[in-house]
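Appendix B. One record, verbatim.
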Amino acid sequence: MYPPFIAPTITSHQWAPAEFNSHGVRTSELMLHPLLQPDTHNALGDDSHAIVDLLDPTFWPGRTTGPRLERTELSAIATYPPITTMHITNDHVPTWPIVLESSASVTDGGQRRPNNTVKVGDVLLAIHTGLQERITQNDWDLLTPKQQHRVARCYLRRCAYLGRKGASEEDNRTDGVKRIDYFGNNVRFEGLSDVEWMPGGGAVLAKMKLGLDGDG
């Protein structure tokens, strides 16, 4: 779990009712926090965006340049307008979406506004936690022999990688195959793409972009 964060300051006008068109689709522009953008040059004016080593069982949110992310950065809202629900998909295993839901709300001047909006840290932690999950026997049985061989190689490579970092390779082998072992060399989170409102405008759909690990 990442440390407790200082809540960001959000003015009341940011919580004005959203506009919808005749098809029920939210029309207000959706903006993604620069730290979650995979583009080379983002709105921060540099090449820095969030990265997470998805092989490592320890959650260490970093950046492409400079030191680790600070608490204030992790506590920043992930999108503007702020949201309470985000569905994150991937091209490798479409049947494993990651869903963030923060439905709590408070009253502000007679209007209800989100209280637990999705933060940058929430996105990073949810992706890391989701891909560190151990697969089930049914997951394994659904793979073809060729796929099982490929996943097994990635599993052994992950254990060896963690052993080189000082962890017990044997303990990691005992922990079994994890979802991240399905992703080949693409084991570093590098941002979100294809971010858009879902039908109805109440939630956001995004696709995670993964990059090659240092050994890939």
